[in-house]
Amino acid sequence: MEKIDSKIKDALDNVRASAQELHGAISDAAAKRGGATKADLEAFANKAKAVTESAKASIGAQQDVTKKHLTEAVTALEAAQKHAAEGLKNAGQAFQTSIKQAIADARASVQKVSEAVAAKRSAAPKKTK
């Protein structure tokens, strides 16, 4: 059982790390001189899709509270992916708005995955010395 719990924990930590990387990449691209490009948005949409699939794959092995947070993270990741895809179709202010929305969604997903990690840790049996 210990080995299975370790794999689940690692998967959850990997989802969190990936979501944090996504948020950082979008934020960095938006902050650079000239702002994010359409190529950046295309990369973000692909990364968001990959992180979403990873989070979805992790949901089934989690406890109820952790599942709830992961499901909310998936919703935020899907919204980030949608806004990044919309940005590819837009220009000017609409493009910038799509980027801002993708950043907010990515930030929300990181928060929800972190809450899932915290819920998982608090549900874990305590080891006594």
Helix percent band: over 70%
Rounded to an integer in angstroms, the radius of gyration calculated over CA atoms is: 16 Å
The shape, in one word, is elongated
Report the mean per-residue pLDDT as an integer.
83
* Tally of DSSP helical segments: 4
Quote the CATH topology.
Answer: Four Helix Bundle (Hemerythrin (Met), subunit A)
Major sheet summary line: none
What's the N-to-C terminus distance? 20 Å
Which regions have little confidence, pLDDT < 50, spanning 5+ residues? none
State the fourth-level CATH superfamily.
Alpha-catenin/vinculin-like
Short description:
This protein has 129 residues and is mainly alpha-helical.
Describe the structure.
With 129 residues, the chain is mainly alpha-helical. The chain has one domain (2-123): Up-down Bundle (Four Helix Bundle (Hemerythrin (Met), subunit A)). Helices cover 85% and strands 0% of the residues. It has four helices and no strands. It has helices at 2-31, 38-59, 64-89, 92-123. It starts with a helix and ends in a 6-residue tail after the last helix.
